Amino acid sequence: MLGLTMKGTSRESGELALIKRIRSAAGRGQSLGAGVALGIGDDCAILRPPRGHEILVTTDFTLEGRHFRREWHPPESVGHRALARGLSDLAAMGGRPLAAFLSLALPAEMLATRTGRLWVDSFFAGLRGLAAQHNVSLAGGDTSESPCGLVLADIVLVGSAPAGRALRRSGARAGDNLYVTGELGGAAAELAAMEHLAAKPRAGASRVPSLAQHSAHPQLYPQPRIDVGLALLRRRIATAAIDLSDGLSTDLTHLCQESGVGAEVSADALPIHPLAAGASPAAALKFALNGGEDYDLLFAARPTARVPRSVAGVPIARIGRLVRGGAITLIEAGGRRSKLKPGGWEHFTGER
Ligand SMILES: [Mg+2]
Questions:
Q1: Ligand 1 midpoint to CA 227 (Å)
Q2: If you average pLDDT over residues 173-197, what whole number do you get?
Q3: Which of 136, 179, 221, 269 could form a disulfide with 214 if both were Cys (CB 3.0 to 4.6 A apart)?
């Protein structure tokens, strides 16, 4: 836990200062979330899930060079995205976040230089901003000097859901309709624009944008759909759900495999993010289907379910339906049908 373990370091004072900053970033002394009985400062955190709830746990790496690039992503974005990845997994299951735990390895120069310390402070500012938005506290973690000169983070999110009711990938049936929240392809389109700018930081993106501006930066500041997931569970709308981290084609394949069904997706029905819509129609479709990192939700609902046009202020679009068998078919304008294969974008490797 933070404040107690400092492994393999000769930079004791730098790390102590870091831990101090993390503790203040975690809001020590301020009110912890309702589900945290004891936060940073002891060997373990103590969590207090609501009565009658089960615990949901998810863990996600945020690795420099794999999930972000220090020359492209401002530090606030890296902190925000690290937490967003975990929150999005909770959202997919209708979970309410209880606490986050962060293990962070930093290159030696980050602990020793002012610029490095500023990067770390900004990383936590980004993480803290999103945490406050979802009322989740950083309740523990670990720090170490990175052995490879890269920033390496692992975040664990703990949440809760009423016993037996968490949304799963496996609950859908043939005949169910298929829906997505928000808009697709924005994160990949923004990443492509960042790549185009070739290592120059985006003007105006180095500060954490206000909430109203977040939708303009779907790659840098994705919004996990916690409130939507809670509502889908509470109102018993969804039969199955998954978050769109790897791209619609890949995540839909996961949902279909777990539910033992196939799907038909209508290309015209896909809600395309404005950043993606600026590309050619073919590129926009590719961003929406394979782009990944949108962190919106894909869910199924019975054909008799009344699915609202928006949930918790987020628009909902019906994009197709689930069918018997395992085939996933894309139906384009004019009725042309093609096989939709999992083509989720592999982070930074260019493989599809
Ligand atoms: Mg997920």
A1: 16
A2: 93
A3: 221
